Amino acid sequence: MDARGRRYRYVGPVELKAAVRPGGSGYRISSAADFGRWIAGRSTTEPAEPFTFVVGIDGVLRLAPRRSEHVACAGGDMVLSAGEISFVREADRWIVSEVSNQSTGYCPDLSSWSEVARALDDIALARPSGFTHEVVFRRCPDCQEHNIVREDDFVCVFCGSDLPADWNVDPTA
């Protein structure tokens, strides 16, 4: 882990990563002007649904349409966070209304919020104080399957084994 935070390697299906185009499909948002250009290019109905996002290891936000794969948005690279994000127009500006770490391809820990917050602050987008929908990911130490922990029930849905309290999805991280 470096000063920017934990890096998340893609842990999803290999065939999805194999289909990634060089450079990825995520639109790089490194300034308020970049966001303005990107959002202006959306249809009027598109912002009604969340978008796919990643924060690259450079700390920059990348956005793609909702049904895009996170690994494609990231160009197959490691990320500092990933999930879904929604924007609403409030008065004369766009704000982040909802944001989650829901990415079954990267399975980022809740601690990745600090990287999302930093990336949004860098482009001057008003944001919530944390993930509005938190997803807790764990890898089962027995069967190795990835799990989403619901209602603090740290039990593997595949084999019934106990799941660890600490994030462990990527053993190489």
Write structural notes for this entry.
The protein is α+β, with helices and mostly antiparallel strands and 173 residues long. It folds into 2 domains: 14-131, no CATH class; 135-173. It is 16% helix and 24% strand. The chain contains 4 helices and 7 strands; from the N terminus they run H-E-H-E-E-H-E-E-H-E-E. The protein has helices at residues 14-18, 32-40, 70-73, 113-122, and strands at 27-29, 51-56, 61-64, 79-90, 93-100, 136-139, 146-149. It has a 5-stranded antiparallel beta sheet. It has a two-stranded antiparallel ribbon with strand order 6-7. The chain is globular and about 50 Å long. It starts with 13 loop residues before the first helix and ends in a 24-residue tail after the last strand.
Instruction: Please compute the radius of gyration using only Cα atoms.
Output: 16 Å
Largest sheet: 5 strands, antiparallel
Distance between the termini: 8 Å
Tally of DSSP β-strands: 7
Q: What is the 3D form?
A: globular
pLDDT averaged residue by residue = 94
Strand order of the largest sheet: 1-3-2-4-5
The tally of structural domains comes to 2
Coarse structural class: alpha+beta
- The helix count comes to 4
Question: Unreliable segments (pLDDT under 50, ≥5 consecutive)?
Answer: none
Strand-and-helix sequence, N→C?
HEHEEHEEHEE
Share in helix: 10-25%
Strand percentage: 15-25%
